[in-house]
Amino acid sequence: MRAIQIDGYGGPEVIVRRNLPTPSAGPGEVLIRLAYSGINFMDIHTRQGKYASSRTYPQTMPTTLGIEGAGTIEAVGSGVVDFHVSDKVAYCLSWGSYADFAVVAAWRVVHVPEELPLEVAAASMFHGLTAHYLAYDLGKFGPGVTCLVHAASGGIGQILVQLGARLGATIYATTSTERKAEVARKRGATAAFLYDEGGFADTVRNLTGGHGVDVVFDAIGQPTLRDSMRATRTKGLVVSFGSVGGNVKDLDPIELGEAGSLFLTRPRLADHLTDAATIRRRAADIFTALIDGSLSIEIAGRYTLDDVERAHQELENRHTVGKPVIKIE
């Protein structure tokens, strides 16, 4: 089978194409013939080495890139009763989706409804399940809740905005360009504006009568986090769930007190997908919304296994609006 691997960390030049034996499903596992793989910043950060010492997302070299895919069951291991050969399925948080086949623990896998294309399923697992726990578990979206979503035209950002609007929250959105801001408005943002070198915090304060928002979702990191704190109300919540702009390495906890006794959390998806029931519940919510049209996911780009370096470069340079995928079939 074809597989895209790395033997060490670095830029796109460390990507290696290999022909490997097709793996076999062991006990409690399924072998999936992949049709599509989602492309995520996590793939880029893995290649760069940002997860080299991670206990949540450990890797061993060589690593086959890709943590999200969709396809059909090719074989099932012993003890697996919920899946059968030819079932349409999807998954996330299991390495190896930049390949023709992947072996995945069955408890991480979900059935894909017949009405949902595999391309959309592959694009919706990592981002959809992330947005789901951010909206429901942390943001507790509903009428009267105000929040700020950074990178609102990106894959997770667009879903967060839509979930917030559907649940009755007031959603403010930031983007890097006016074109991207218009995307956020179309997804349901109450207002969308540019980062403005931190000036977004003043805009948010003005829009909220000086109070600030209940919660900020910040996937940018170093360039925005302190201004995100300025945009948050007293005793509000700042959710730092990514660092595509660089890590914050010099934050003194006293700053949270000075900013209004704020709560700061750095969650990870793995801690919100700890069992099959939770994964299936979150995926079912996302799939149902995609099928009934109350949620839309924009496919930002379609690539092949031969285009992985270009795909990484375009995502790294933030040229994509939405979610890119790799077509493997």
Summarize the structure.
With 329 residues, the protein is an alpha/beta fold. The chain has helices spanning 41-48, 118-138, 155-167, 178-187, 200-207, 225-230, 254-258, 276-292, 308-316; strands spanning 2-6, 15-19, 29-38, 63-64, 68-76, 88-92, 101-105, 109-111, 146-149, 170-175, 191-194, 213-218, 232-240, 263-265, 299-303, 323-327.
Could you characterize the architecture of this molecule?
The chain is built from nine helices and 16 strands. It is an alpha/beta fold and 329 residues long. The chain folds into two domains: 2-125 and 275-327, Quinone Oxidoreductase, Chain A, domain 1; 143-266, 3-Layer(aba) Sandwich (Rossmann fold), CATH 3.40.50. The strands form three sheets. Strands 3, 5, 6, 7, 8, 15 and 16 form a seven-stranded mixed sheet that branches. The protein is globular, with a radius of gyration of 20 Å.
